[in-house]
Amino acid sequence: MVRSIGLGVQALALLLCAAPEARAACEGPVALQILGSGGPIAEGSRAGASALVWRDGKAVLLVDAGSGAFVRYGEAAARFEDHAAIAITHFHADHVADLDAILNSGAFSERTKDLPVIGPAGSDYFPGVRDHLRALIDPETGAYRYLSGYRDGTEGKAKLLPVDVGSEGPVQVLDDPVASLRVTAIPVEHGVVPALAYLVEIAGKAMVFAGDQNAMSDGFVAALAGRQPDILVAHNVIPEGEGQPRGLHRPPSSLGEMAAAINPRLLVLSHNMQRALVRQAEGEAAIRKHYKGPMVVADDLACFRP
Ligand SMILES: [Zn+2]
Questions:
Q1: Could you give the CA distance from residue 161 to residue 209 in angstroms, rounded to a whole number?
Q2: What residues does each domain of the chain span?
Q3: Signal peptide position in this chain (predicted)?
Q4: What is the average pLDDT across 135-148?
């Protein structure tokens, strides 16, 4: 399910899997599973951006829940009860549209423990995580007011704890000793959209979710330069070359510069859009001018064990 590029991937104990084996292959001390490897356009079989961080067979962290993530979440056999938190990078629909569906699914679970939902604070253009949740589950005005038990932990539901992260950062947003999980939010530049990246430290391993960011995200690179995480997940949205929109995303050459500075043990390209994939060789060459380490293009349900 995953095409590997470059050297040394086996040394990272990279596991490739697809449903229904996904759950078994993602077991182990720590694993990353890409639930949705696609973008905002309905153009194939890829779900929108979403990933799980697994610890000892439990999906402790859900990062984004884009369109289609609900189905992949079920295929991965993730359990709502096991989440230490949900972290949303930003509120474009291809990153959050299926949060509704996953919360609806979670309403059938046994979970009653509070659940932090982390995301960017709002702006004039986008509601933050608190307002987004209010729009869904407010008992008076929410689109899904029948789920308003999530607001206060009534009706047998977990109480959702919104964590709004401003544009100052990095800031540690979660420290869960039970899961040995620490999450740090790092603001990134994504046009007018308030957006975050996440550094996830878990049981001695480190993963970085770069989120959607353009080439002006200097603070993100500075915060992680030389950090050498086990895995860096980055978008693969636009091809190299002139005439491409640069306001929201890094082109491949900029991805390469970013990866070279952060120097992960594995670069996972996700958020794969067709306009980039049809010119993938050109994009990889642009990345390779800067970043020389292992690199893969992920498909839905791919698992990586650092
Ligand atoms: Zn976006």
A1: 21
A2: 3-304
A3: 1-24
A4: 97
Residue 28 or 14, more confident: 28
How close is the Cα of 51 to the center of ligand 1, in Å?
A: 15
The answer to whether 203 touches 240, Cβ cutoff 8 Å, is no
CA 251 – CA 239 distance, rounded (Å) = 6
Cα–Cα distances in Å, from 60 out to 42, 132, 189?
29, 22, 27
pLDDT value of position 237: 87
Angle, to 10 degrees, between the axis of helix 129-137 and the axis of helix 99-106?
60
Report how far ligand 1's centroid is from the alpha carbon of 91 (Å).
Answer: 7
> Which structure tokens are listed for 81?
């009860």
Given its phi and psi angles, is residue 263 left (phi above 0), alpha (psi -120 to 50 degrees) or beta?
left
Topology given in CATH for the domain delimited by 3-304: Metallo-beta-lactamase; Chain A (3.60.15)
Q: How far is the CA of 49 from the centre of ligand 1 (A)?
A: 9
Give the pLDDT confidence of 35-89 residue by residue, as tens digits.
999 999 999 999 999 999 999 999 999 999 999 999 999 999 999 999 999 999 9
